[in-house]
Amino acid sequence: MRFARFVLIVQAVIMIGFSLAYWLRPYEMANLNGMLLMETASVSHMRVYYGGLQLGLALFLLWAMQLPERAKAALVMLVITMLALVAGRLGSLWLDGGELIGFDLASLIYRVFAALLAAAALVMLRERPTAEPEAEPQPKRTRMDDDPPRPFRVGDGATELSTPEADQGPEPFRRGDPLHTATETRGT
After folding, report:
1. CA torsion sign, 31 to 35 to 36 to 39?
2. Euclidean distance between CA atoms 131 and 166, whole angstroms
3. How far is CA 49 from the centre of its chain?
4. If you average pLDDT over residues 34-59, what whole number do you get?
5. How far is CA 162 from CA 166, 170, 171, in A?
6. Which pLDDT score, from 0 to 100, does residue 16 have?
7. Nearest-CA neighbor of 63 among 51, 77, 47, 52?
8. Are 93 and 100 in contact (CB under 8 A)?
9. Rg (CA), the chain
10. Residue 123, class by beta-carbon neighbours within 10 Å (0-12 exposed, 13-18 middle, 19+ buried)?
11. Boundaries of every domain in the chain
């Protein structure tokens, strides 16, 4: 996890630096990329997309450093983003006929290197899984009787409690009960 955090913090610091540069010096940063900002809208666009997007990605990388699950997601995002930028640059070179091969070679090399570092950190994170906490022992459940359960039959009811007759009180009167007749209840 230490190497993954190192990769994430280095990338976050670089992205914050570029973000501030695009916010504070948009004309100079555009000129370094061979662009000329002619309108106020283009300056705003440079600050929002080049500055704001990199700041958001950097904040995500800093947030992700705290937990291994987040770090994995951030490293995957970093690999995909950097490789997409490399593919975009190579596609642009191919479409332009390779005329600007030396124009942004340092940026291309940096992005390939950053993607390789993030991929290596991701592989190292997966090789050493974190130890799972030991499960608490479950109490052993025992049945009251060790006999196997009997199949249910129609008419089976709850089992009677076996208590002495002396502990049982008098039974309540039930209408139509032959044991308790109307004459007996009047007399008592």
Report:
1. negative
2. 62
3. 27
4. 87
5. 12, 16, 16
6. 93
7. 77
8. yes
9. 39
10. exposed
11. 2-127
CB 8 within 8 A of CB 65: yes
Is the Cβ–Cβ distance between 37 and 46 less than 8 Å? yes
3-state secondary structure 51-98: HHHHHHHHHHHHHHCCCHHHHHHHHHHHHHHHHHHHHHHHHHHHHCCC
pTM of the predicted protein model: 0.59
Give the closest residue to 51 by CA, choosing from 24, 21, 19: 19
Closest CA to 71 of 130, 19, 133, 7: 7
Which DSSP letter does residue 34 get? Answer: T
Query: Side chain identity at 42, as an amino acid letter?
Result: S
Contacts of 113 (CB under 8 A, 6+ apart): none
Q: Residue 33 — very low, low, confident or very high, per pLDDT cuts 50/70/90?
A: confident
Residue-wise pLDDT for 49-90, tens only, equals: 888 988 999 999 999 888 888 889 999 999 999 999 889 888
Following DSSP, what letter does each residue of 9-20 receive, concatenated?
Answer: HHHHHHHHHHHH
Closest by CA to 6, choosing from 166, 148, 125, is 125
Say if residues 116 and 83 touch (Cβ distance below 8 Å): no
Tokens representing residue 27 in the block: 């004309």
